[in-house]
Design brief:
The chain folds into two domains: about 230 residues, Anthranilate synthase, CATH 3.60.120.10; about 200 residues, 3-Layer(aba) Sandwich (Rossmann fold). The protein is α+β, with helices and mostly antiparallel strands and about 450 residues long. Strands 2, 3, 4, 5, 6, 7 and 8 form a seven-stranded antiparallel sheet that branches. Strands 12-11-13-14-21-20-19 form a seven-stranded mixed sheet, sandwiched between helices. Strands 1-9-10 form a three-stranded antiparallel sheet, with no helix packed on it. It is built from 13 helices and 21 strands. Keywords: Glutamine amidotransferase, Lyase. It catalyses: chorismate + L-glutamine = anthranilate + pyruvate + L-glutamate + H(+). GO terms for molecular function: anthranilate synthase activity.
């Protein structure tokens, strides 16, 4: 691609978004297996596929891009994969997300800016972190190109790659190949730096700037053809919520209209889709919309206090000050009930007087089995703060008809009482295996 002053040359492995015939496709890629000097082997790859850090890294971006798919898709999206994308110097794990949309392709492109694989999540907050820590602009790196047109039948089409593995050449012939790596709680700095070198190697070798890999005398079998590798990839799929592995149809289990308050995390788009699939009408409103408090208190239906970044105890933060007040208001008198998810749950817990603590190591796409009110559930956590409840406090709450689900160390997983419930985990996440059922049961519980 030539701009008049710059030339971009590359072969991006990652689709930002495609749309054709009303079908939207996204392609989250994360998790990098760097080929050792002696070449890749199925045994080394199997170790990589079993690495919890790599699994969490990919799960996080699948959730993040599902948020976007649920924003642009009329009926959410379906997860295909995982698959292995094999390249010259490395291999990636990837998924494909598919959904149907009636939006204009320009709206699809706008709503999917920018991929979590190159920003982090939640995207809005991640961009603030990037602004704080990156000393200069990224230029074209991690952005997107878009080819917009129409097919033979006149239907709009869109093909947009993410600008990674791309050389940026200026008018004087100076060459720059920006690269990056995804940082999660289990990241090793040395390994992440080595990953960036491997990512740049393919582009630099193609341009003749550095030596390429020696040509192999015989064709190497595809790593993904090994039955053990296929089994490992299939095993990852088994740890995803079945709800997101098929196209969903709307049921009529629940009736009414749910109002979801977005605390700056578009997990609310996925949450809205899960609620709609149960039969509810759903409206999602950002916390900072003018007049939101009055709208919430007048709403004729369940209110969902959704997730978002930040410390629920920080009353110096205008967002938290507003949301804490809103949580107090709906707990006092909203006759249709309130459900809190992640931050929303923390707000409810704080209003009940529970201690809020910053986790020593935050959860980023951590899948864990918990005891949820006497039933084992595999759920996905994304949280930096948590409520604590000891035995004495649990008994006091029980006397007021409040039930607490907690870990052995006192961390609160969930709570419920007359007209309210809260869950620290994300029932809408691909990591929560039974999430749609959990949401439905919690909403039913609000209605007594």
């Amino acid at each position: 691609w030539e701009t008049g002053g710059r030339t971009l040359v590359g072969a991006s492995p990652e689709v930002h978004v495609r749309m054709s015939g009303g079908t939207v496709v996204m392609n989250p890629i994360s998790g990098t297996y760097r080929y050792p000097a002696e070449g890749p082997t199925p045994e080394h790859l199997l170790d990589f596929l079993a690495d919890g850090k790599e699994i969490e890294e990919l799960s996080m971006v699948v959730d993040e891009e599902l948020k976007m798919m649920c924003t642009v898709g009329d009926m959410g999206g379906v997860v295909v994969g995982p698959r292995l994308k094999e390249m010259t110097h490395l291999a990636h794990t990837e998924y494909e997300l598919r959904g149907r949309s009636s939006l204009d392709v320009r709206d699809v492109l706008r709503e999917t800016m920018f991929a979590a694989t190159v920003t982090g999540s939640p995207v809005q907050n991640a961009c603030r972190v990037i602004e704080r820590h990156e000393v200069g602009g990224r230029g074209y790196y991690a952005g997107a190109l878009a080819l917009i047109g129409r097919d033979a039948g006149g239907t709009q089409t869109l093909d947009s790659p993410i600008l990674i593995r791309t050389a940026d050449i200026d008018a004087e012939g100076h060459l720059k190949v920006p690269v990056g790596a995804t940082l999660v709680r289990g990241s090793d700095p040395v390994s992440e730096v080595a990953e960036t070198h491997a990512k740049a190697a393919g582009v630099l070798a193609a341009l003749g700037v550095r030596p390429g890999r020696p040509r192999e005398e015989r064709v190497r079998p595809r790593l993904s053809d090994d039955p053990r590798v296929r089994a490992a990839l299939d095993g990852r799929r088994a740890s995803l919520a079945p709800f997101w592995l098929r196209m969903q149809e709307r049921s009529d289990v629940l009736e009414g209209h749910a109002l979801v308050v977005d605390g700056e995390d578009t997990f609310t788009a996925m949450l809205g889709h899960v609620l709609r699939s149960s039969g509810l009408e759903v409206t999602v409103r950002r916390y900072d919309e003018p007049g939101l408090r009055e709208v919430v208190l007048a709403h004729e239906g369940p209110v969902v206090l959704g997730p978002g970044p930040g410390d629920p105890s920080d009353m110096g933060d205008p967002k938290m000050r507003f949301l804490r007040g809103l949580a107090a208001d709906v707990l006092r008198g909203h006759r249709h009930g309130v459900l809190g998810v992640c931050l929303g749950h923390e707000l409810i817990a704080a209003e009940l007087g529970l201690e809020m603590v910053r986790k020593h190591v935050p959860y980023q796409g951590a899948q864990t089995e918990i005891d949820l009110f006497g039933r084992a559930e595999t759920v996905g956590f994304y949280n930096s703060f948590v409520a604590y409840c000891d035995d004495e406090t649990a008994e006091e709450l029980k006397a007021h008809a409040v039930e607490v689900s907690r870990a052995a160390n006192g961390e609160v997983h969930a709570l419920r009482g007359p007209g309210f419930a809260g869950v620290q985990f994300h029932p809408e996440s691909v990591l929560t295996l039974n999430g749609a059922v959990v949401v439905r049961e919690l909403i039913e519980g609000l209605r007594g």
